[in-house]
């Protein structure tokens, strides 16, 4: 979150790649695990810490699923999380997966209810306005708005979008994401890879993954 | 331009995901700070749940996210391996038991035929259980009836003598226990024995010749009926049920 404006050199990125998702998530997971343990003993302040650590990713995930009404759906999910917190067993990373599962169920319930009254996707207009698709390839894509990012993700097939959101936004590892989605880890890994590759193409970020991972499908 | 090159170096790690895409997405989607009212709402729900005692709720399977969960699969695999090993040992034991018994040199009396001893074990156990005579008398012949039928066909042929002597030997041992108890001697097996001896009164002598000792000192029919007769069949039929049990496993 501290890295709001992204205007980075290549070496920064390389460092970010290693330090970023992996270690940052690890540090937070330790803190999160301790907070959850204290919250399970009744510590309200610890529950607030856990909330602040989990909510950004969780809300982003729910946004990717339900769009504008994500705040309400996430609030519903938090009610259930607070109610069932005593049942949870696991560490910080496990708590991310557990909460993501609850949020996903609430989101799917919401979508099922919504099906009766279909409404236009919230992302269509944003997608057209995406600066990356028209303007120069350079630093414009280093930062995109939340809506633009969600619009790009919404372009993906459902399984790819969810896999990307869980891996990148929620910060789950492969097996945890697979458990949330009730799928095999291999399927989720493939879906996340394809989704990220497509997003990179949309963002015009040159992917070396075409050469570096020959086992998976070539660029389409 | 710089971005292009940096993107290239960023992706050379061989990771399946292009890192810059992840960073951009994570920064964009996660950047928004949560609204305060929803946090207050969640905290209120937490307080309510805590005060209602919900923190002691039972953990369901879907609530267990402990990291050792994947190890369960290896534990299951290990258990399967141990089971397979046990099964192979059991079947191997059956094979040894099947082929090994006739070659035991010190036991000439034991014929390769396993059915007679195994069927002779029920009378031993039922007599040993100390049940009243009538019941014992009935159960004994009925359960030992298959034994002569197995050895009946070799009975007529000359080479059937070992099985016959084997089953007859067993019947001789049991004869003393059964004598005078109800209708036991009317059963086919005993009638065969009596027939082979040439009359009921000749049976002790016949059996003595067969077993190579005099059965008369041993009887003590009523004093310690459970102990001595029981031990006799037991030590020789001890192998019987085991073989029988393995035979059933083998067929199943």
From TrEMBL, chain B:
Residues 121-155 have a biased composition (Low complexity). Residues 1-20, 52-71, 105-186, 210-252 are annotated as: Disordered. The lineage of its organism: Bacteria, Bacillati, Actinomycetota, Actinomycetes, Kitasatosporales. Residues 166-179, 220-238 have a biased composition (Basic and acidic residues). The chain crosses the membrane at residues 77-101. The keyword Transmembrane applies. This is Uncharacterized protein. Keywords: Membrane, Transmembrane, Transmembrane helix. It comes from Streptomyces scopuliridis RB72.
């Amino acid at each position: 979150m501290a890295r709001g404006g992204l205007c980075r050199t290549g070496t920064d990125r390389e460092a970010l790649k290693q330090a970023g998702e992996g270690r940052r998530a690890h540090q937070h997971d330790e803190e999160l695990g301790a907070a959850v343990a204290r919250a399970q003993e009744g510590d309200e302040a610890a529950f607030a810490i856990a909330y602040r650590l989990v909510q950004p990713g969780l809300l982003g995930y729910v946004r990717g699923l339900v769009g504008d009404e994500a705040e309400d759906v996430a609030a519903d999910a938090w009610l259930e999380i607070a109610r069932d917190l005593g049942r949870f067993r696991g560490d910080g990373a496990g708590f991310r997966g557990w909460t993501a599962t609850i949020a996903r169920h609430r989101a799917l319930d919401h979508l099922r209810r919504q099906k009766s009254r279909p409404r236009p996707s919230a992302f269509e207009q944003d997608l057209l306005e995406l600066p990356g698709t028209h303007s120069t390839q350079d630093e414009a894509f280093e930062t995109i708005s939340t809506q633009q990012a969600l619009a790009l993700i919404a372009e993906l097939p459902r399984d790819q979008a969810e896999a990307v959101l869980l891996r990148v936004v929620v910060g789950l590892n492969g097996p945890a994401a697979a458990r949330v989605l009730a799928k095999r880890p291999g399927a989720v890994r493939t879906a996340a890879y394809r989704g990220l590759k497509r997003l990179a193409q949309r963002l015009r970020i040159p992917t070396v993954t075409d050469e570096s991972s020959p086992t998976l499908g070539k660029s389409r | 331009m710089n971005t292009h090159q940096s993107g290239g170096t960023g992706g050379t790690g061989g990771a399946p995901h292009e890192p810059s895409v992840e960073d951009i997405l994570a920064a964009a989607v996660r950047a928004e700070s949560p609204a305060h009212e929803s946090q207050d709402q969640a905290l209120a729900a937490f307080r309510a749940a805590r005060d209602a005692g919900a923190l002691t709720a039972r953990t369901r399977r879907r609530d267990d996210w402990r990291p050792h969960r994947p190890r369960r699969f290896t534990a299951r695999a290990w258990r399967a391996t141990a089971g397979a090993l046990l099964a192979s040992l059991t079947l191997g034991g059956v094979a040894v038991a099947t082929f090994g018994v006739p070659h035991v040199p010190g036991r000439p009396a034991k014929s390769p035929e396993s059915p007679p001893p195994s069927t002779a074990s029920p009378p031993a156990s039922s007599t040993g259980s100390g049940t009243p005579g009538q019941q014992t008398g009935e159960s004994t012949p009925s359960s030992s009836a298959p034994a002569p039928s197995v050895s009946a066909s070799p009975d007529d042929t000359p080479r059937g003598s070992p099985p016959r002597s084997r089953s007859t030997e067993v019947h001789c041992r049991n004869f003393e226990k059964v004598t005078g108890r109800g209708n036991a001697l009317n059963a086919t097996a005993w009638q065969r024995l009596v027939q082979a001896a040439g009359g009921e009164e000749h049976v002790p002598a016949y059996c003595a010749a067969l077993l190579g000792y005099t059965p008369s000192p041993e009887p003590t029919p009523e004093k310690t009926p459970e102990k001595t007769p029981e031990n006799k069949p037991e030590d020789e039929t001890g192998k019987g049920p085991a073989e029988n049990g393995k035979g059933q496993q083998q067929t199943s």
